Amino acid sequence: MEDTSRFEALAASSAERHALRRELRRRRRTLTPREQQRASEALCRRLRALPEVQRARRLALYLPNDGEIDPTPLISWLRRRGCRLYLPVLRPLAENCLWFVRYHAGTPMVKNRFGIPEPDTRHGAHRARRLPAWALDLVLLPLVGFDPRGERLGMGGGFYDRSFAFTRGPGPRPRLIGVAHDCQRVAALPSASWDVPLDAIISDREVIRP
């Protein structure tokens, strides 16, 4: 009976997260192009003011998809500061894990199985173009939802959680900063045991330090 109750509670929690994920994705997709642009500009102003971003020399970010807030206006500023940029790539032959591949204007790009642009895996297969996740200084990762305590909701694939699970232990690790639109903020989110904690969450309106 206790096992059944625990399973039903887990299923209910999973169903709630799925429904909330769908609603928050809908919210960000309904933003107009002008609202998206203003949010992106506000986000990048906040990011430029962060000591972690100012110090970073090896930084991973993402190309926006599905209404995600856009961090790419930060790219030219980062490059002027001598920062090397990396993009996540779905790692071949590894379930729900990421490579981080050097990104510049000439990087050959393809769409992955989710339709998201990423560096071609044939390009990223060369080790000189990849960086181990632990060697990054800072990672900007997109969120589906967040709350004032710093709890967050991702897409549900576990890509970042698997790729950065090592950050729970000793050793070198990057700073992890989640970014999102303010409309993706909710009053409270349940934490999941597999969620890798973030160092900060930045929206177009606030900075949260869990």
Automatic annotation (TrEMBL):
Q: What residues does substrate bind to?
A: L63, E68
Task: Describe the reaction catalysed, as an equation.
Answer: (6S)-5-formyl-5,6,7,8-tetrahydrofolate + ATP = (6R)-5,10-methenyltetrahydrofolate + ADP + phosphate
Kindly list the positions annotated as binding ATP: R17, H18, A19, L20, R21, R152, L153, G154, M155, G156, G157, G158, F159, Y160
Q: What is its EC number?
A: 6.3.3.2
User: Per UniProt, what is one Pfam family of this protein?
Assistant: 5-FTHF_cyc-lig
Required co-factor(s) are:
Mg(2+)
Q: Which domain of life is it from?
A: Bacteria
InterPro entries in the record, alphabetically? Answer: FTHF_cligase, FTHF_cligase-like_sf, NagB/RpiA_transferase-like
Question: Molecular function terms in GO for this entry?
Answer: 5-formyltetrahydrofolate cyclo-ligase activity; ATP binding; metal ion binding
Sorted keywords for this record are: ATP-binding, Ligase, Magnesium, Metal-binding, Nucleotide-binding
As for family, the record states: Belongs to the 5-formyltetrahydrofolate cyclo-ligase family.
Name of the molecule in the record: 5-formyltetrahydrofolate cyclo-ligase
Question: Which organism encodes this protein?
Answer: Bisbaumannia pacifica
Q: What is the lineage of its organism?
A: Bacteria, Pseudomonadati, Pseudomonadota, Gammaproteobacteria, Oceanospirillales
